[in-house]
Design brief:
- The protein is mainly beta.
- The chain has a domain of about 230 residues.
- The chain is built from 3 helices and 18 strands.
- It is globular.
Length: about 325
Amino acid sequence: MPCHNHILSAVRRSFAIFLACILLFPVTAGATLQPLENEELEEVTGQAGIGIGVKDVQIFQNIGQLNYCATDSGYLSLTNVQSDVIRYNFGTDLAGGAFYIDAGICEVASMDDWDLGTDPTSVNKGMLVTKSPDWQQEVSYETSSINFSSDGTGTNTHNLGAFYAGQIRQPSWRQYMAPHESGHGLDMEYDFEMHIDKLSYAYRIDSADPSNVQTLSFENIHIGQSFGFGTAGDDPSDPTTWRSDIGEFQIGDMFGDLTSTDKKQQHARPAQIDAGVCDFDFLDENAQGAYRLRLPFEGSIRFEKVAYGGTDFGPGAIDGIKAYRFDAYLIP
């Protein structure tokens, strides 16, 4: 099965955002700088970076087929990847709807490199920051079928089912990015609050009968830092008691905490992206090229309903998640 690069959707999205920025920020030809008196100048606080306002942006997306092809002729194919209207910062009473980009040098703690016995040191680290403290969006994605082939032939092709996620709302988010302190690769941190109306996965239980499917679904999913588990008034089994100010789920920690008495909290643990050659004990060959994702994360996840095969199992809660190390390797 041939591979195709589906970049039209990304081009359309980039052009829509670019066009929105042009329309939102027209250049005023007659604008001039106004001189300030010394007293006025003393009242000015210097700022760096840029802010970009986004208002009433709508994106329509439909990809007929999206394929990932392996070197052994196998492939993973997503069919009819589409979304409802993707909307960003809509409504007439919106006060926010801007994101900010800045760069600077921050004082952070050194990484532990699996050695908690070593005290952290202060490190000056240059990084790029992108954030939006007040963001509105309605985003959904679905694919009508997920197909996997082990050898690229129709005989060994299997339909793994269909997937839907939406509406996805993200009231606030922050992202920090920087190169590794030494060597190649990328360090990053991503903090966000997220609410998802529904996640569902439908799969065939009888390959001969396409209509015979079972569905696993999660509804009203809330992702943040903490729901106040263990505090008065919080009942994980009763969604009406869950608080709404849940903070931000955190992937990676660019900064650490030099003042903490807990060794596990002192060192920085950024999420990382690397590519290189590694030795894996479970492979016949000693050295293999690999793509590594290191994703430490911290936060809480709750959902108001989970159902399987038509049976409602009620709400669920995963509180106080702390993964200090989580590595995923992609090996061709």
